Amino acid sequence: MSESIDQGELQNRAGRLVDAARKAGADACDAIAVSGVSLSVDVREGKVEETERAEGDTVTLRVFVGKKTAAVSANRADDPADLAARAVAMAKVAPEDPYAGLADQDRLLKTLPELELLDTTEMTADQLANIALEAEAVGLAVSGVSKSGGAGASWRLAGVVLATSHGFEGAYLSSRYGMSMTAVAGDGTGMERDYDFDSRTFFEDLDAPSEIGKRAGERAVRRLNPQKITTRTANVIYESRAARSLLGHLSGAVNGASIARKTSFLRDKMETAIFAPGIEIVDDPFKRRGAATRPFDGEGTAAGVLKVIEDGVLKHWFLDGATGRELGLEPNGRANRSGSGTSPGPTNITLMPGQKSPEELMREAGSGLLVTDLIGHGVNGLTGDYSRGAAGFWFENGEIVEPVSEITIAGSLNDMFKRMVPASDLDNRYSAATPSVMIEGLALAGN
After folding, report:
1. What domains can you pick out in the chain, each with its CATH number?
2. Strands (E), 45-168
3. What's the rounded Cα separation, in Å, for the pair 334 and 221?
4. Across 276-384, where does the E strand assignment appear?
5. Which residue of 34, 131, 230, 436 shows the fewest CB atoms closer than 10 Å?
6. Which residues does residue 336 pair with via DSSP β-bridges, in sequence order?
7. Cα 32 to the chain's mean position, in Å?
8. What gap in Å lies between CA 183 and CA 11, rounded to an integer?
9. Ranges of Polar residues compositional bias (predicted)?
């Protein structure tokens, strides 16, 4: 599989662009070449519904003329001299950006680490179809499932090369495999649907299609005949799938760009306890077979493991070179390529698990809401105000008693983070990894 992307050609392409930009008058520049191939198959009711293969081949040249910058992209390797001339001409008439520039040379990665990024198992359309069909068949066989909402399987390979005018050149290949199934239970206006999915760097790590289908079917059936609750204050447990959204809200709030723009509710909270003692949140770009594992960031710099939250205390923003310079802080290798430049962001961010299972937390809480599904995006990044539609299950005496829906959870992330208690069931598959979490005393708006 790795031979289907020619890394040597990607490296040559990036190198030619850098050389051409310097000859065209750029004071500094970098070039990123990305090539990828993906294959996906969707099935429904036992038949292949769609097969899609996509191939991409993109180069982006970014140039700096003093503190002015511009970038050009091409789908194919157009004439490097022409691309470079256009980029330099654009930069000369661009406004100055006092924070623009390549990463400091002493921060460049010197030796690429060996990481588990690439599985050489190549998938065919027939193989993907069989995976999806198996997941769907098992889901449909679950008692109470009335029809399929579809199933799918996918495979992707990507190659990345980054070269800079001050000496960095790095390249890597990565793979990704995925599958999903959506099941529908009930009939008419009483229908409910739910899904299950998995996505991994290595094919051998994927859950079996039968497990995906069974879980999807069982989740849909459990949601039948949901009840409504009255408005109240209650303990809330987010299952790990839903809890990932809370980690996403934190990641946005500690993004250096949000801090620089003063649009984060955590902008004045560095070295402040924003979680309870004992809470640890770690960002690890070298996580074994991680979804966002990478040897270098979008500027070619070395990146270490960050303890973003240590014993409940906020310790780091996510910083690339530009936001680091703007904030007067040392960048920490969290640059992502974004359009014509970079933007900071997490890699593999993980809320470390606690000691108690979700069932134990439910027994301790007594009664409350188990959230399995969230709706909408009602979070104010500036104030931390939180309002999300939710569905799930009501529990009493630590036991689930009925499905519930049409609920709005309201609160403040400042308060929610401080009351967050992680369970022990860490779901470590995704770039944002969390266990289930419990938050006491949230406002629930119902009937």
Report:
1. 2-219 (3.30.2290.10), 226-245+353-445 (no CATH), 266-347 (no CATH)
2. 47-65, 68-74, 145-164
3. 42
4. 281-283, 306-310, 313-314, 335-338, 341-344, 349-351, 368-375
5. 230
6. 343
7. 21
8. 45
9. 335-350
